[in-house]
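Q: How would the structure tokens look for this protein?
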Amino acid sequence: MARHKIKNVKKKIKTALVLEGGGMRGAYTAGALSWLLDNNIEFDNAYGISTGAVHLCNFLTGSKDRLFDFSVDGIVDKRIVGIKPLLRCGRIVDYEFLFDHIIKEEKQFDINDLKNCKTDAYIGLYELSEGKTEYYSVRDISLKELQASTSLPIIGKIVEDKGRQILDGGITDMIPIQQAVKDGCNRCLIITTKPGDYVRKPAKKAIVELMRLSYPQCENIAEDYKIRHLNYQKQIDMIKEMKDKGEAVYCFPSRSSNVTRMGGSRDELAVLFELGYNDMEERKEQILKLLEKDS
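A: Here is the predicted structure in token form.
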């Protein structure tokens, strides 16, 4: 019987950048992305959730200045978070002011700059009519959709755009690693804003019930929030498994910080930005090896 020699076929490498949200803690992500720009590192695909979606879009435009300005200077503007927005719009965070005035007018961000983006990049949006998170190409999104990607439930208002009601995709996908793998990405650089030993606690019953009462048009949202800690752990477990196989580099703050989702001084944010940059430099060899196309 003739023997046929089986050839070892190399698996095609498809790289992805995967970004968690984190509110003001996203200054760490912005610093890490600045390092990527300085080192001319590109990806086949990219995925952003919540604040990570905004930083992803700034990264894709190639603007280091905008990454710093938004994550350090712009985000501490008292017109966005605190008493002033509460009195003005009845919410502790005024997302409309943030996007229509700070991002669009003051920071001169033009969503149309993403239409010719070389990277296949996506942001996650929670669709209230569907009761799930869907991903949309940054080449086709509106500024309203980008706003919705950061609009936290309860804290932010529902965003209505293109006939849909949409919110932050972090309701289900805190770290969009599952979407990256679903799209065939097998080499992922994941940047998160929480410590490596962070464990998400179950949502309080009162918060789950508030979600149910606040969004009667969406049966799934309260249940999704109820199991949010379980979904987060699944995403972390997937990242760790990929890391163990040499398919991922997992970057998170190497030092603790006083910055929270909605709190932090400009100086603290600047330090966190620098930490993101320096942590990436420390991982330089790992990152470059991961992304080698002939590896």
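The longest strand covers residues 120-127.

The chain has a mean pLDDT of 91.

Upvote if useful.
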